[in-house]
Amino acid sequence: QCRFGPRCRFLHDVSEYLAAKPADLGRRCPLFDTFGRCPYGVTCRFGRAHLGDGHQNLLDAALARQWEGKVLVRNGLSKELQQRLRKRKFSFQKAEEFLRGLRAGKGGKAMGGSMEDTPKPEAVRSSQGAEDAPNPEALQNSREAEDAPKPEALQSSRGAEGAPSIPTLGPLTDEDVTKLRPCEKKKLEIQGKLYLAPLTTCGNLPFRRICKRFGADVTCGEMAVCTNLLQGQSSEWALLKRHHTEDIFGVQLEGAFPDTMTKCAELLNRTIDVDFVDINVGCPIDLVYKKGGGCALMTRSNKFEQIVRGMNSVLDVPLTVKIRTGVQEKVNVAHKIIPRIREWGASMVTVRGR
């Protein structure tokens, strides 16, 4: 019995539904032939292939048993993780440690003195008025500078191995006191293999599956915006999905600032299964370029360096970078940037030469 009664706009008689349904597209159902069952049942456009007596959906038990426990598509966004991201309850311990070093001025030494964009506490204090009435923006900056840990305090809060002393519960493990060295990271072995370049609006999962059948060895997802991922947008997380046939798979991120990019890298490092993470420093779209992302990072070397070093510090997989030959016409700068990118910690640089 339908609780809506005569007001219901749906059919409840299967025979009546099948009589009004368009003719099937074929005699064989691809899903039933592959997985042993079709989840669409009577609504399938190949329904006659797997409907038995009484319009019951048939099941090929032997074929379905072969797919039990197999995850065909990975890297999905769970409701629990989405709620944590939207309520800002996801903990970014490694990213916050790196960002604290930047705010405290410690990043200037670790990053070769490239901290011109970070305001000094003295400069913030000198920006106050003569009547000792600071403007709200300067007051906010000064409070952040005072709350940031001093280099001496930050150094003293670390252990002998340099690990931060964060209160934890449970037994002590090696991961609590030992940091992963660069030589211990997973290697990206793609010498002699065919790499399918990431293609925005084109390189989706079905397209990559087709390319895998034609011989592609390494695949990469479409460009994903880091701020959208941090907000838990389902449409953006769909770009990270990985099919089980993709042996070597990476994701590509776009962003303009070290805080969002570093946090996004730690988020993906802890929640999805990838073999490498790529930074898009080649996107020429105005929407991305005007915000300082994409190929605009090639002219913002300080932010570029902070992003690469920050992401590399939180990732357990190799970090790669995609750049262009330059930003302005007939002014090539890639040959000057590539050696520096290697010093910052990237494992590979790809050049899109236009």
UniProtKB/TrEMBL annotation:
| Annotated segments matching region Disordered | 103-177
**Domain C3H1-type positions:** 1-15, 28-53
For this protein, the record's InterPro entries field holds:
Aldolase_TIM (IPR013785), DUS-like_FMN-bd (IPR035587), tRNA_hU_synthase_CS (IPR018517), Znf_CCCH (IPR000571)
Catalyzed reactions = 5,6-dihydrouridine(47) in tRNA + NADP(+) = uridine(47) in tRNA + NADPH + H(+); a 5,6-dihydrouridine in mRNA + NADP(+) = a uridine in mRNA + NADPH + H(+); a 5,6-dihydrouridine in mRNA + NAD(+) = a uridine in mRNA + NADH + H(+); 5,6-dihydrouridine(47) in tRNA + NAD(+) = uridine(47) in tRNA + NADH + H(+)
Keywords from UniProt, A to Z, are:
Flavoprotein, FMN, Metal-binding, mRNA processing, NAD, NADP, Oxidoreductase, tRNA processing, Zinc, Zinc-finger
Cofactor(s) needed, names only, are: FMN
Q: One biological-process term from Gene Ontology? A: mRNA processing
Under Pfam families, the record lists:
Dus (PF01207), zf-CCCH_DUS3L (PF25585)
Under Enzyme Commission nomenclature, its number is 1.3.1.-
Chain intervals annotated as zinc finger (C3H1-type): 1-15, 28-53
One function term, GO molecular function aspect: zinc ion binding
SUPFAM superfamilies associated with the record: FMN-linked oxidoreductases (SSF51395)
What role does this protein play?
Catalyzes the synthesis of dihydrouridine, a modified base, in various RNAs, such as tRNAs, mRNAs and some long non-coding RNAs (lncRNAs). Mainly modifies the uridine in position 47 (U47) in the D-loop of most cytoplasmic tRNAs. Also able to mediate the formation of dihydrouridine in some mRNAs, thereby regulating their translation.
Q: Which family does it belong to?
A: Belongs to the dus family. Dus3 subfamily.
Protein name, as recorded: tRNA-dihydrouridine(47) synthase [NAD(P)(+)]
Q: What is the native source organism of this protein?
A: Drymodes brunneopygia
